[in-house]
Write a structure and sequence with these properties.
With 724 residues, the protein is of the alpha/beta class. The protein contains 19 helices and 28 strands. Bound molecules: zinc ion (ZN) (2 copies). One zinc ion (ZN) binds next to loops.
């Protein structure tokens, strides 16, 4: 530790988590007996409380002269830990300024929660315990390896050569080794992207002693499978502690242990969800972002950061290579990976073929215009599913709506099951006969009769997964499995997986073949490796094509490609697998491209449209969202802040390149009795948008303080928003 003893009291600047809108910069001054290195964790008093903070020298020493007599001392320095690195601090500063939040909020949210309440004595005890358990867990060769892991051991070669790579995989790995990146690994589902990630991680780990690798996945559910693979590959080489996970599903103690292992360098591979982008990894040399298109990389509260975008930034900052991977890249990443001659900044690595030469599923469209009006499962689809059952194969049917029916309606009057507190309908759940609001949680027994007119005849309108499951069971009542047993259906959605362990047990039923049909929401379409599924069907995917959100087609295409990718992963199954779509728009270009599994054609047509409309990635956007007791107050605040900007930003000539649209209600205008409005800000230049936002932030704060705006509950800026 670089503590320099000095005789005088040392002025020490400390970053703490100040409330988001307190207008405090977050860097507070204290004194300490010794000079502490930047990045040192400390405990400091603030008012009556004691907080965790990080020693954080302000960028310039231009602040007013402080009287040391008035400064309070630091309570304790947690200097048993090495300080957080300059790169880590730079990442925090960048995130705070780019996403318009305070550095204190970002930094403290990036540290494990348990650390916030730990004294230095407790921390010391924890570290001792960890060191002890590491010793007992470790394999005999570990200590030697940990000291000199710079050369691949013979075992490393054996492990690596046990896997037979395809030509495409070998090419991708070679280019990763030879070039700087950042890379976009564009690989079909089943093309073996994970193996490429592991090989790249392996070559990074042997390339320099102590090197660390960060691998990000979009969902917690995807970590156990991946963790098992990485542990099997790397723990024999680098020790039992070498692979750790980091996600919000872990206990606070587990999270702290993983964080400490990453921070100390003991963890060589960190697997995690978006929060892991902030993991303290002093020797980070590779960041992998799997399924980089997934919207869950974007945070929806606090600092609304994109972990994918920050990964690219962090890679540049630390000199670490970055590899993004997807079968359906985000249009932003696709655009960035165009040829360098056209301005591309990423290297595109292509792996179009499936490992083992498996075929991508045949895409079939059912024109629902030719089906009976109330038809849910068309007869050709039903026949196909029945055929799969007869052959002992599994089908997956998905519908993006849980519950039994999205609305309950009176057949006499206009009554519908609206939520009292939200601008949404309450969903009918038949299993416990409730009407539940999926936004505020309001749940009530279904009324015996229409609350408006007393008519006992109230009907479910539309369908959710619960009703779909019931309907399929009815349709297949007379059908038998090859063993003569009735057909078994399992439903997987947020309702059936609420209990801990429920998802795992349902998934294992699918894997062991106990189940013939899997019904669910898009939750089942992502990532899971279902070997025995040979038919995937989207019951009603058209909705997204009518959406006002310009990203809806992109999300639909990727969802359907992902879903199709679930089918036919087992090359021992002889019949070609199928992806079925029931649609009223069978000739829509999106479905045409999907039929050919032609993501590039789809992406290029979407990018053309976006370019013509000057939409991202050809322009840059931010949203300011406001919540208030009334829609009028929420919009009033935004429109007032817009006028203030027009008055005050004129001189800087910023508004010549920035467009502020009028405030509008959000598509879900009211949730739990809170009205929500938003204002879109757009610019052809990212830098100009950034300059404008940082100037405007102060104006938003002072506008909020205006007596006219006292109905405003909160507001926030969302830079590069995903949902508009
Ligand atoms: Zn009625
Ligand atoms: Zn509600």
């Amino acid at each position: 530790m670089t503590q320099i003893p000095v005789t005088e009291k040392c002025l020490t600047q400390v970053l703490v988590h100040t409330p988001a809108h307190s207008q405090m910069a977050g860097v507070l001054s204290y004194w300490n007996e010794t000079l502490l290195a930047p990045g040192t964790l400390v405990r400091v008093p603030l008012g009556q409380r004691e907080l965790l903070g990080v020693v954080w020298p302000a960028e310039q020493a231009s602040e007013t002269v402080l009287d040391p007599a008035k400064l309070r001392p630091i309570t304790a320095a947690l200097d048993i830990l090495p300080p957080l690195s300059a790169h880590w601090r730079a990442l925090i500063n960048f995130t705070a300024s780019y996403y318009q939040r305070s550095a204190g909020e970002v930094a403290l949210a990036a540290l494990p929660p348990q650390l916030r309440d730990m004294s230095s004595v407790q921390l010391r005890r924890r570290l001792k315990k960890l060191a002890k358990s590491a010793k007992t867990q470790s394999l005999p060769t570990d200590s030697a390896l940990n000291k000199t892991p710079s050369k691949p051991t013979p075992e490393a070669d054996t492990v690596a050569s046990a896997v037979v790579l395809t030509k495409e995989q070998r090419q991708a790995i070679r280019r990763f080794r030879d070039e700087a990146g950042p890379f976009l690994l564009f690989g079909a589902t089943g093309s073996g992207k994970t193996e490429v990630f592991m090989q790249c991680a392996a070559s990074t780990l042997v390339s320099s002693s102590g090197a660390q690798v960060l691998v990000m996945v979009p969902e917690i559910n995807l970590t156990p499978q991946l963790e098992a693979r990485f542990k099997a590959r790397f723990c024999p080489l680098y020790g039992a502690e070498a692979v750790v996970s980091m996600h919000s599903g872990m206990t606070p103690a587990q999270r702290l242990n993983s964080w400490l292992a990453a921070h100390s360098g003991a963890a060589r591979v960190v697997l995690g969800t978006r929060m892991a982008v902030f993991a303290s990894m002093p020797q980070l040399q590779l960041i992998v972002v799997d399924e980089e298109h997934d919207p869950s990389y974007k945070s929806s509260e606090g600092a609304r950061y994109s972990a994918r975008d920050l990964a690219v930034y962090r890679g540049r900052l630390e000199g670490a290579k970055v590899m993004l991977g997807s079968a359906t890249p985000s249009l932003e990443s696709w655009h960035h990976s165009r040829p360098a001659a056209e301005g591309g900044r990423y290297l595109r690595l292509e792996m179009p073929s499936r490992v083992g030469g498996g075929q991508l599923p045949l895409v079939r469209r059912v024109d629902m215009n030719h089906q009976a009006k109330s038809c849910i499962i068309s007869s050709p689809l039903l026949a196909a599913i029945t055929g799969r059952i007869a052959r002992g194969e599994q089908s997956m049917v998905f519908l993006n709506r849980r519950g039994y029916a999205p609305v309950l309606q009176c057949s006499d009057c206009d009554w519908k099951s609206e939520c009292r507190h939200c601008s949404a309908y309450r969903v009918f759940h038949k299993i416990d006969r409730t009407l539940r609001c999926h936004h505020c949680g309001l749940s009530e027994r279904v009324p015996r009769a229409c609350p408006a007119c007393g008519n006992p005849d109230i009907m479910p309108l539309g369908r959710g997964t619960e009703r779909l499951e019931e309907h399929l069971a009815e349709l297949l009542r007379g059908v038998r499995r090859p063993d003569g047993q009735p057909v078994r259906i399992v439903r997987i959605d947020a309702d059936t997986t609420r209990l801990k362990g429920a998802l795992e047990s349902q998934l294992s039923q699918v894997h062991t073949g106990e189940v013939d049909i899997l019904v669910g929401t898009q939750m089942i379409a992502k990532g899971h490796d279902f070997r025995r599924i040979t038919l995937v069907a989207a019951v009603n995917p058209d909705n997204a094509l009518y959406s006002s959100d310009f990203r809806a087609p992109e999300r639909l295409f990727s969802l359907l490609m992902q879903a199709a990718g679930r089918a036919g992963r087992d090359e021992t199954v002889a019949n070609p697998s199928e992806m079925w779509m029931q649609t009223f728009l069978p000739t829509h270009p999106l479905y045409e491209a999907l039929k050919k599994h032609d993501y590039p054609a789809f992406a290029d047509s979407q990018l053309k449209e976006r370019q013509q409309a000057a939409m991202p990635p050809f322009s840059f956007q931010a949203l300011v969202r406001a919540e208030a007791r009334s829609q009028e107050a929420a919009q009033g605040f935004l429109n007032l802040a817009r006028r203030v900007a027009a008055d005050q930003c004129d001189t800087a000539n910023l508004l010549a390149q920035v467009t502020l649209y009028p405030a509008v209600p959000m598509s879900m205008a009211r949730i739990a009795n809170i009205e929500r409005a938003q204002m879109l800000v757009e610019s052809p230049s990212r830098a100009t948008l950034q300059r404008f936002l940082s100037a405007w932030q102060g104006m938003l704060h002072s506008t909020r303080a205006d007596p006219e705006c006292k109905g405003v509950i909160r507001w926030a800026i969302d830079v590069d928003p995903l949902n508009i």
